[in-house]
Amino acid sequence: MNKKKQIYYALGGFIFGVLTVSLIWLCVSLKKNSETSVDSNNNQSDSLNNSVEQPTNLPDVVPTNTPSSEPDNDNHTNNNTVQPTDSPDVVPTNTPSSEPDNDSHANNNTVQPTDSPDVVPTNTPDSEPDNDNHTNNDTIQPTDSPDVVPTNTPDSESDNDSHANNNTVQPTDTPNVVPTDPPSVVPTNMPDNETDNNSNSSESSVALWDKSTVYLGGDIVSYNGCQYRAKWWTQGEKPDSSDVWEDLQIVDGTPAKPEGVDNTPIDASTPQNTELTDFKVVGYYPSWKPNKLSSVDFSIVTHVCYAFAIPTSDGGLRDLENPETAKTLIESAHANGAKVLLSIGGWSYNDTPLENVFMEATSDKTKTERFAENIFSMCKKYGFDGIDMDWEHPRVDGTSAKQYETLMLILSEKLHADNKLLTAAVLSGATADGNIYYDAAAHTNAVLNAVDFINIMAYDGGDGDRHSQYEFAVNCGTYWKETRGLPAYKVVLGVPFYARPSWADYGTIIESVPDAYSKDHTAYNGMEVYYNGVDTIAKKTTYAKENLGGIMIWELTQDTNDTDKSLLQTIGKNIP
Questions:
Q1: What one-character-per-residue DSSP string does 153-201 give?
Q2: Contact status, residue 124 vs residue 212, Cβ threshold 8 Å
Q3: Which of 55-64, 268-277, 458-467 has the highest mean pLDDT?
Q4: pLDDT tens track for 467-488
Q5: Is 209 exposed, middle or buried (0-12, 13-18, 19+ CB in 10 A)?
Q6: C-alpha pair distances (Å), 109 with each of 138, 225, 324, 379
Q7: Spatial CA neighbour of 151 closest among 62, 61, 233, 235
Q8: d(CA 124, CA 154)
Q9: Is residue 557 over pLDDT 80?
Q10: Nearest-CA neighbor of 99 among 235, 291, 219?
Q11: How far apart are CA 93 and CA 90, in angstroms?
């Protein structure tokens, strides 16, 4: 037994020894593999670190507009959307895609700052209401970054005309980068390869339009000497040919000269006919209100314009609306020593603007002569004392101004030979801010010399208090008298007898708000409406009396019958 035990003990010791040695070998192997893995990772990390240049004193991160290549895009509306990242320090990169019825004479740029104090968005510059009446803001919010100004990257030539572009630039998930000691950066304006004939804006007060720049609603640009305001997000869509842009009709830089017209100097001589130089009170009477004649005090007005005779595209005229009212009007006016003119046109007819009708009616010499003869014949037929031309409105660009001038010169010769008057309703000429309307120059000097006087539509400067405030009236008078050089007797200042918004008659407002006469705005039908009360009308009348040749009213039937609050009576009281 003892010997057997000894053999067991020896065998057990041997097995224990083998197991112990195996365990030690396993531990040593694992340790070596671990050290080898760590060394490999460290080598990879060192390699990666050696391939990346670590930034020092990084400037703020500025978005870059990357130009597109030459897309052919017929876009009136561009719905591209750039989504912001959640990072306060990094702005996503924008990669550009390929490329407004009232029977009157009539006629906000906000760039919102980003939430980032360090990043400035990049804008890269590149090289009418439906209103049948005589009836016709730009804030760039600064970013919080004083040091970094965007760099403008030029675009290559692109022709862009699309009806819809739904490209969306999605932001990348970029980690936050915290710049240290950002240096000041001076903006660089890089020219574009194509100027798009934008040379008229060499003296531009706003940035030139650029094909590669993303514009937001409210942004104002200069293009071909005129200012345009973006209605919504846009890129690459030309301001003069896309619905996304609103033509502000404001001259930017040197006013453009109408095509095809001579540079005729203004005749500032004084006529011998004192009827023309005497102070004038001109009132428009609408043909569609035949039962309002009794409301007009013809002892105050000197001239009445019967509105309107409607042109046709073949150079004719539609039958005169309510001709018996016209005859009664002429009799009543003549009995009080006033003259009556037939007004041709207006803004629209049956909700269709008449501008294109005028263009077609004067598209060649034969049609223009026929049109002038038909106008003259209707004037003679009903016994009007002359013609008031209300083409709303001739334009500087294209052949419009030349066609208008040709028609007016033919009419002037015919009418003046028959001892009749020729007048014209014209654009305000200037805005409420004192800027010059681009198309005001389409009323050429030759036309201004040919007419006996002009009726300035100095209203509809905008809804609200911009509609027709006193300062706007002065700007208009200044443009036509001083900028254009017309003699004072030819400049007749228009005033409105209605409110905006709402287009409510002054008389109707007085019925609802009896004390509205003493101010220029009031609450009416749930909104704040703006108009001219008696004090403003008196002030404008005094200004016109001292500086111009008369005052014009759109329109006579909109007054109140309360003589103490009447705007027409106020005008009469302020004319000695």
A1: PP----EE--SEE--EEPPP-PPP----SPPP-----PPPS--TT-GGG
A2: yes
A3: 458-467
A4: 999 999 999 999 999 999 999 9
A5: buried
A6: 4, 18, 50, 46
A7: 62
A8: 7
A9: yes
A10: 235
A11: 9
Here the tokens at position 164 are 């819809």
**Is the distance from CB of 550 to CB of 454 less than 8 angstroms?**
no
Which DSSP symbol is given to 138?
A: E
Residue 162 near residue 187, CB atoms below 8 Å: no
- Percentage of residues in the chain with pLDDT exceeding 70? 68
Of 443 and 181, the one with more pLDDT: 443
Nearest Cα to Cα of residue 453 among 533, 550, 554: 550
Whether omega for the bond prior to residue 501 falls within 30 degrees of 0, making it cis, is yes
State the average pLDDT over residues 36-55: 45
The letter for the amino acid at 378 is M
260 CB neighbour count, 10 Å cutoff: 14
Q: What percent of the chain has pLDDT over 90?
A: 54
- Asked if 177 and 90 count as a contact pair (C-beta separation under 8 A), the reply is yes
If phi > 0 it is left, if psi is from -120 to 50 it is alpha, else beta; for residue 324 that is alpha
**Which phi and psi (to 5°) does residue 321 adopt?**
-75, 135
Tens digits of residue pLDDT in 277-330: 999 999 999 999 999 999 999 999 999 999 999 999 999 999 999 999 999 999
Cα(225)–Cα(199) distance, integer angstroms: 7
Q: Which residues of 499-537 are buried (b: 16+ CB within 10 A; e: fewer)?
A: bbebbbbbbbbbeeeeebbeebebebeeeebbbbbbebb
**Structure-token match 């006629």, residue found:** 107
Residues in the chain: 576
Cut 0.85: pTM above it: no
| Best CA proximity match to 371, nearest among 360, 383, 382 | 360
Distant-in-sequence, close-in-space partners of 241: CB < 8 Å, separation ≥ 6: 161
Are the CB atoms for 84 and 144 separated by under 8 Å?
no
Q: Which two tokens stand for residue 101?
A: 């019825």
